[in-house]
Amino acid sequence: MSQKIQWGILGTGSIAHKFATGLSFLSDAELVSVGSRNTERANQFADGFDIPNRHPSYESLASDPNVDIIYVATPHNLHCENTQLCLESGKAVICEKPFAINADQATRMIESAQAEKLFLMEAMWTRYLPLMVELQAMLAENLIGEVRMLTADFGFRAGINPESRLFTPKLGGGALLDVGVYTVSLSSMIFGSPTQVVSLAHLGETGVDEQAGIVLGHAQNELAILHTAIRTNTPQEAIIMGTKGRIR
Ligand SMILES: NC(=O)c1ccc[n+]([C@@H]2O[C@H](COP(=O)([O-])OP(=O)(O)OC[C@H]3O[C@@H](n4cnc5c(N)ncnc54)[C@H](OP(=O)(O)O)[C@@H]3O)[C@@H](O)[C@H]2O)c1
């Protein structure tokens, strides 16, 4: 068996291109297969990244014996279905954010990985930035004392396109699932799972949340105050407040 991890990519959209470019910088990774719903797109993607195996369906990619792990890069609403397909075919999976569109889907995905004894991870890349490693070290050293509150936002102004995955309810559109998840992930890294969730959202003309405010309460009464938007530019910052200081 090759020393390199043999990767497959499921879906040939925008982030799949970036991921394939990123993989090319890793010495222990080899991109060997790609799967698309469309033969032409599979071939085009494969030609662009010099990928030997191109598949005209996700099912065909999932059963490719050359592949160790599959990166799922489809719209949110398909993450569960596509991940399950890969796991049931014996492949490890890195699934794009948001991991799933509800708790029931997430639970099923985790249970499948456990049953198959396969690696499964959400591609929540912000957790692995050098900045986050530094931040975790600062918090572990108690630099700002006991952490009591977090404010964090992630919002940008997109033009309304009812056909795009951002504005289409059936593709899991809306601010929370697209970028709000980054703020929830930061809160989870700092405080763990919340014990209370309160939220208010504005649903726009296409039926997705164009902006939302979320307050998460935790076991020691720590608060995370988060907001997210796809029709409003926000500062895109986070402030962590402790009893002895703040980190911004
Ligand atoms: N980590 C990050 O920084 C980051 C950044 C952007 C996006 N993302 C995540 O990555 C996922 C994909 O986003 P993207 O921007 O790459 O989307 P995209 O450009 O629309 O690509 C999605 C791909 O999924 C496949 N697909 C399967 N069923 C589809 C359907 N019904 N409608 C549209 N596409 C369908 C298509 O590939 P085929 O036609 O080849 O099958 C398509 O090219 C999303 O969940 C998003 O949240 C993550």
UniProtKB/TrEMBL annotation:
- According to the record, the segments passing through the membrane are none
Q: Which Gene3D superfamilies match?
A: Dihydrodipicolinate Reductase, domain 2, NAD(P)-binding Rossmann-like Domain
Query: What keywords appear on the UniProt entry?
Result: Oxidoreductase
Q: Which residues form a coiled coil?
A: none
A molecular function GO annotation: oxidoreductase activity
User: Which residue numbers delimit the GFO/IDH/MocA-like oxidoreductase domain?
Assistant: 134-248
Residues in domain Gfo/Idh/MocA-like oxidoreductase N-terminal? Answer: 5-121
- One Pfam annotation, family name? GFO_IDH_MocA_C3
Family to which the UniProt record says this protein belongs: Belongs to the Gfo/Idh/MocA family.
Question: Under which name does UniProt file this protein?
Answer: Gfo/Idh/MocA-like oxidoreductase N-terminal domain-containing protein
Origin organism of this chain? marine metagenome
**Species lineage:** unclassified sequences, metagenomes, ecological metagenomes
